[in-house]
């Protein structure tokens, strides 16, 4: 199946958005239903854990209870880790870890995802999360939607650009759908690919795809926000405390990043040294996670709540915090417990996302900070403001470490249904983003579009359009030239001495009459000797550029004619040599300009072809030359 060439570009974009939206909605729906069934079977049926759930009202969630068979957590979570590891490393190793990074890598890379990856990711993520592994559902959904977008691109015969657009749109639509946050998800599609840039082309199709996915998902699961509304209030006098929360969130976020990737390195190093197959890494991480939770449960009831809250997505315990039902001691230790269990679960190669754990870590950080402020300053920070600190903490921490502050901010307020929280969230997340620097939880992000292989060529063209030949050429007084009366032997001597492979030919008046290169000398050898004259071997058909030409024009001419150097002449006198430029000069200028990130200017020049009266018909313009 091919998309017909007669389909206009905007129609192709709409087609991509519609297809990706349908895929994201159906994929997220089946994945979410699988998670519900898996959790009901493993955690509720086998472990006997009445898990608190996000979105429950105050009366229902108050009925939650610790597991009847707490010790069963260990075999259940180990079963999930073992089966997940066997499936991932047998059928699709790229499905390990957090799926959002894999989707970002696919966008910046070849833009292809193997057909089996979405299915393997869905099954293994359900196994990991529903058996108690600390992971989120957004990463798998993003990778699944991106994978299905890649499959659709294969079937439709899309171009490389359109394929990447489908992947980016899939990431935003998938996450926006599973979180019931279509606006934030659409913006996430453009923001999460870079640390300091946006994929602007993805925003509009992601809007359409997110709406379609949201509609499909909501028709079955309902359209209520993810989290049930609690009693919240804040005022302008608290804004300095929210800004301070941004500083605290940055510190915890850095701990999260370093612990996560440090744990990942340790697992790789140990399993490589002991020569244990990677298939068993998630089992080891699951065993350590289960052991850690059981150890906490043996300490005290509050420690048990910390351990249980660090399992799964953690959203149920986030809902408890939004209802002000978690004690300050639990909120203080939950971020660190969640960091550890997430690092053990996903850092070991388990399948799941880092988004949900990041939100819970940030929320618990904000909740603990708000609770301490309430104890110290109850007149300024009343109890109703503590849930606000929880929500702002979610936004500040994960918005910073994901380098997607706008998308995360909008998504969280969509998930909570309270858009009045945008003001304190803006203050906290802006400080956190500034302080986090280049640290990121998504290692496949690149700094900006210029560093992405998806845009490198077009960015190079933009830069070359802004530089003129006259700015980088070798001036006349530094040019090594030869005369028509010189021998080919002298040309070879100059090539050995200067390492240049081509030279302009000037007559006695200093006028440009030709070009001679290494290939010309080789092709015109007489009985293996090099006594022939330059006049007989040179190419009199000379391609030149003017000072005002851009480097893009010069490079286009070199590429078209398969040459590696061009004489530079004034526009009014094509035989007066004033400079010389090579491909090496162009590459050096591009590198220097890109590193300085200078402003862009656009001008146009002209290209001239001159031909000598003598030796007409000879040409080396079509011969391949190699720069020294």
Automatic annotation (TrEMBL):
It comes from the Archaea. One of its GO terms (cellular component) is chloride channel complex. One of its GO terms (molecular function) is chloride channel activity. Residues 473-532, 538-596 form the CBS domain. It is found in: Membrane. It is a multi-pass membrane protein. Residues 592-628 are annotated as: Disordered. GO terms for biological process: methionine biosynthetic process. CDD domains: CBS_pair_SF, Voltage_gated_ClC. Keywords: Amino-acid biosynthesis, CBS domain, Chloride, Chloride channel, Ion channel, Ion transport, Membrane, Methionine biosynthesis, Transmembrane, Transmembrane helix, Transport. Pfam families: CBS, Voltage_CLC. This is Chloride channel protein. It comes from Methanoculleus submarinus.
């Amino acid at each position: 199946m091919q998309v017909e060439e007669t389909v206009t570009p905007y129609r192709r974009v709409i087609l991509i958005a519609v297809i990706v939206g349908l895929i994201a909605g159906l994929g997220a729906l089946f994945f979410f239903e699988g998670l519900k069934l898996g959790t009901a079977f493993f955690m509720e049926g086998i472990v006997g854990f009445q898990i608190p759930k996000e979105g429950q009202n105050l009366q229902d969630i108050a009925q939650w209870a610790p597991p009847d068979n707490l010790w069963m957590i260990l075999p259940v979570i180990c079963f999930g880790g073992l089966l997940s590891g066997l499936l991932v490393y047998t059928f699709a190793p790229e499905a390990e870890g957090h799926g959002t990074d894999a989707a970002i890598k696919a966008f910046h890379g070849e833009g292809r995802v193997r057909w089996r990856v979405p299915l393997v990711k869905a099954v293994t993520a359900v196994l990991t999360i529903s058996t108690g592994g600390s992971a989120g559902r957004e990463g798998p959904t993003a990778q699944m939607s991106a994978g299905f977008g890649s499959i659709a691109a294969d079937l439709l015969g899309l171009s490389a650009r359109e394929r990447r657009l489908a992947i980016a749109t899939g990431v935003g639509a998938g996450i926006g759908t599973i979180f019931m946050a279509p606006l934030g998800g659409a913006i996430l599609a453009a923001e999460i690919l870079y640390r300091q840039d946006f994929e602007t082309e993805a925003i509009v199709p992601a809007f359409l795809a997110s709406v379609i996915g949201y509609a499909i998902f909501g028709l079955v699961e309902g359209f209520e926000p993810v989290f049930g509304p609690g009693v919240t209030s804040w005022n302008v006098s608290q804004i300095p405390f929210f800004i301070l929360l941004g500083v605290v969130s940055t510190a915890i976020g850095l701990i999260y990043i370093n612990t996560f990737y440090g744990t990942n390195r340790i697992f790789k190093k140990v399993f490589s040294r002991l020569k244990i197959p990677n298939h068993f890494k998630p089992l080891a991480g699951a065993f350590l996670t289960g052991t850690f939770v059981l150890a906490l449960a043996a300490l005290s009831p509050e420690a048990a709540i910390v351990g249980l809250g660090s399992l799964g997505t953690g959203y149920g315990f986030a809902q408890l915090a939004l209802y002000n039902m978690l004690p300050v001691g639990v909120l203080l230790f939950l971020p660190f417990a969640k960091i550890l269990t997430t690092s053990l679960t996903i850092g070991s190669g388990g399948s799941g996302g880092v988004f949900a754990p990041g939100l819970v870590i940030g929320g618990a950080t904000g909740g603990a900070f708000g609770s301490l402020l309430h104890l110290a300053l109850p007149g300024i920070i009343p109890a109703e403001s503590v849930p606000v600190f929880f929500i702002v903490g979610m936004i500040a921490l994960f918005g910073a470490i994901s380098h997607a502050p706008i998308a995360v901010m909008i998504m969280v307020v969509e998930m909570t249904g309270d858009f009045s929280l945008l003001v304190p969230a803006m203050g906290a997340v802006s400080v956190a983003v500034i302080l986090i620097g280049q640290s990121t939880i998504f290692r496949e992000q690149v700094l900006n579009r210029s560093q992405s292989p998806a845009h490198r060529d077009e960015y190079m063209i933009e830069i070359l359009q802004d530089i003129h030949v006259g700015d980088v050429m070798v001036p006349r007084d530094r040019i090594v030239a030869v005369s028509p009366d010189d021998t080919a032997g002298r040309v070879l001597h100059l090539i050995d001495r200067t390492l240049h492979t081509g030279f302009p030919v000037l007559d006695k008046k200093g006028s440009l009459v030709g070009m001679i290169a290494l290939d010309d000398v080789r092709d015109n050898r007489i009985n293996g000797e090099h006594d022939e004259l330059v006049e007989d071997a040179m190419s009199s058909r000379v391609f030149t550029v003017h000072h005002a030409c851009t480097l893009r024009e010069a490079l286009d001419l070199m590429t078209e004619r398969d040459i590696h150097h061009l004489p530079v002449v004034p526009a009014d006198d094509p035989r007066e040599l004033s400079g010389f430029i090579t491909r090496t000069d162009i590459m050096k200028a591009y590198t220097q300009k890109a590193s300085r990130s200078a402003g862009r200017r656009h001008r146009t020049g002209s290209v001239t072809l001159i031909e000598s009266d003598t030796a007409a018909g000879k040409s080396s313009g079509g011969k391949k030359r190699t720069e020294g």
